[in-house]
Amino acid sequence: MDLNGKIAIVTGASSGMGRETSLLLAKNGVKVALVSTTGSKLKKVEDEIKQAGGEAISIPTDVTSADQVQKMVAKVIDTYGKVDILVNSAFWGPPGSLEETDEAFWDRTIDTCLKGPFLCIRTVVPFMRENGGGRIVNIGSLAGKNGEDNRTAYNAAKFGLEGLSAALREEVTRDNIHVHLVSPAATDTPWWRTTDAKLTPEVLERFVPSETIAQAIVWVISQPDQVHIPDVPVYNFRNPFEGKSSPFSE
Ligand SMILES: NC(=O)c1ccc[n+]([C@@H]2O[C@H](COP(=O)([O-])OP(=O)(O)OC[C@H]3O[C@@H](n4cnc5c(N)ncnc54)[C@H](OP(=O)(O)O)[C@@H]3O)[C@@H](O)[C@H]2O)c1
C-alpha cells in the first residue's frame, strides 16, 4: 500500500510507540489523528509533525468510553472524510501481584488494553468497509503469548487482544481489511520509568528501540494487498532481564 495521502488514527499517540508511529506515518505522507487522554501532550506531537511538514490533528479521547470513541471517529471523518489505518497503542498496565490486582486495577487494565481497541475497531470498520478496505494494527505484546510474573491483568488483556485479532480477521478479510498484530518484547518507552524495574545501562541497551516498532508497523501496512502478515513478534536479541522471564519477578 502506498501510504502517501492515507488517513490514520493512532491511539496512545502522546507517548512511546504510539508517538513514534505517528511521527513515522506522517513522514510517509499519512495524515494522522492523534488520540490519547491528554490534549497538551498530543499537541506537542502534533506540533512536531507540522514543523516537519506533515499533517496531524489532536483529538483528546478516552478509548475506554464508547461515546468518546464515537465522537473521535466522527471528528476524523468530518476532517479527512475517511479512515485507512487504525493503530491501537493506548495502554495502562502497571505490574501487580494477584493481591494488588483489585477490581478497579483489573478493570482499568482490561478496559484500556482490550476494550479500547475493540471500541475503536467497531467504530472504524464501517468506514473502512465503505472505503473498500483498510489496515488495523493492534499492538500486542510477548505478554500476549507467554505468562509473566505479577502481570495477571495485563497478560489477560494481551492474550485477549490476540483472540480479538484472530476473530476479527475471520470477519473482515472479506472486506479487504488487514488485521496485523505487532507484538513487541521489552521496548524502550517512557512507561518503564513509571515502574520499579531496575533500568541499568546494560538493561536499556538490550531493549528494542521504540523507533523499531514504528518501522515494523509502517513496513507491515505497506505490503501489497495480496500479502497477509498477521503476526509480527519482535524479540529482544538478548534477554534484558537475565535469568528472569519478567523484570517484575520476585
Ligand atoms: N514498552 C514495552 O516494553 C512494551 C512491550 C510490549 C508491548 N507494549 C505495548 O505497546 C503499546 C504502547 O506502549 P508504550 O510503552 O509505548 O506506552 P506509553 O509510553 O506508556 O504510552 C501509553 C499511551 O497510552 C495513552 N493512554 C493511556 N490510557 C489511555 C486511555 N484510556 N485512552 C486513550 N489513551 C490512553 C497515554 O496517553 P495519555 O496519558 O495522554 O492518555 C500514552 O499515549 C501498549 O499497547 C503496550 O501494551 C509495550
SSE order in H/E notation?
Answer: EHEHEHEHEHEEHEHE
Looking at the overall shape, the CATH architecture is: 3-Layer(aba) Sandwich
- The structure class reads alpha/beta
Bound molecules: NADP nicotinamide-adenine-dinucleotide phosphate
Rg (C-alpha, Å): 17 Å
**Main sheet properties:** 7 strands, parallel
CATH structural class: Alpha Beta
Would you give the CATH topology? Rossmann fold
Q: What's the end-to-end separation, in Å?
A: 46 Å
| Arrangement of strands in the largest sheet | 3-2-1-4-5-6-9
| Overall average pLDDT | 96
Query: Any idea what the CATH superfamily is called?
Result: NAD(P)-binding Rossmann-like Domain
Shape: globular
Low-confidence stretches: none
- Strand content of the residues, in percent? 15-25%
Give helix % range.
40-55%
* Number of distinct beta strands: 9
Number of domains: 1
Number of helices: 7
Describe the structure.
The chain has one domain (7-234): NAD(P)-binding Rossmann-like Domain (Rossmann fold). 43% of the residues lie in helices and 16% in strands. It has helices spanning 16-27, 39-51, 66-80, 103-130, 152-172, 201-206, 210-221, and strands at residues 7-11, 31-35, 56-58, 85-88, 134-139, 177-184, 187-188, 208-209, 231-234. The protein has a seven-stranded parallel β-sheet, sandwiched between helices. Helix 1 (16-27) packs across helix 7 (210-221), helix 3 (66-80) runs parallel beside helix 4 (103-130) and helix 4 runs parallel beside helix 5. Bound molecules: NADP nicotinamide-adenine-dinucleotide phosphate (NAP). NADP nicotinamide-adenine-dinucleotide phosphate is lined by residues 11-12, 14-18, 36-38, 41, 61-64, 89-92, 112-113, 139, 141, 184, 186-187, 189-191.
